[in-house]
Design a protein that fits this description.
With 136 residues, the protein is of the alpha+beta class. Helix content is 15%, strand content 40%. The strands form 2 sheets. Strands 2, 3, 5, 6 and 7 form a 5-stranded antiparallel beta sheet that branches. The longest helix is centred in the first third of the chain and has 17 residues. The chain is globular and about 45 Å long.
């Protein structure tokens, strides 16, 4: 009986682990190599731009950055990035709340009079995926 449970447990763990994927993001369009790029992954419209389920920072080299997320569960995501030139870990903005540091989103979508909507930036991660984002 123990062997049956052990086999079932190992099969279940293999299935769960096998569902995690690798997401590689290439970010281009930087004007310089100062600071870092901050990357966040959202997985719902409700949390878009508020709560990141995964996040990373990466140094900029040759005016681009490559960010790799390993072990990400299969699902729906949207990527938000910004160029943190002064290393203060926030997107700086002016008096009118207009960002003064470059930013970007998955699918290279742009918002009008504000950030884009989640439905425009979302994508499905069902296999290992490479995406490119150009900062603006």
């Amino acid at each position: 009986m123990f062997k049956v449970f052990l086999i079932m447990f190992l099969f279940l763990m293999n299935t769960i682990v096998g569902q995690n994927k690798k997401l590689t993001i290439e970010v281009t369009g930087f004007e310089n190599n100062k600071g870092q790029v901050v990357v966040g992954l959202c997985n719902s419209e409700k949390t878009f731009l508020k709560v990141f389920v995964y996040g990373k920072t990466q140094k900029i080299e040759n005016k681009k950055a490559i960010i790799v997320f390993d072990n990400i569960p299969v699902g729906e995501y949207a990527v938000c990035i910004f160029h943190d030139e002064n290393l203060n870990n926030k997107l700086d903005s002016n008096f009118f709340k207009i960002p003064t540091e470059d930013f970007g989103f998955s699918n290279n979508v742009r918002g009008y009079f504000g950030p884009p909507e989640y439905k425009e930036a979302k994508f499905m991660l069902h296999s290992n995926k490479n995406i490119s984002i150009k900062v603006n």
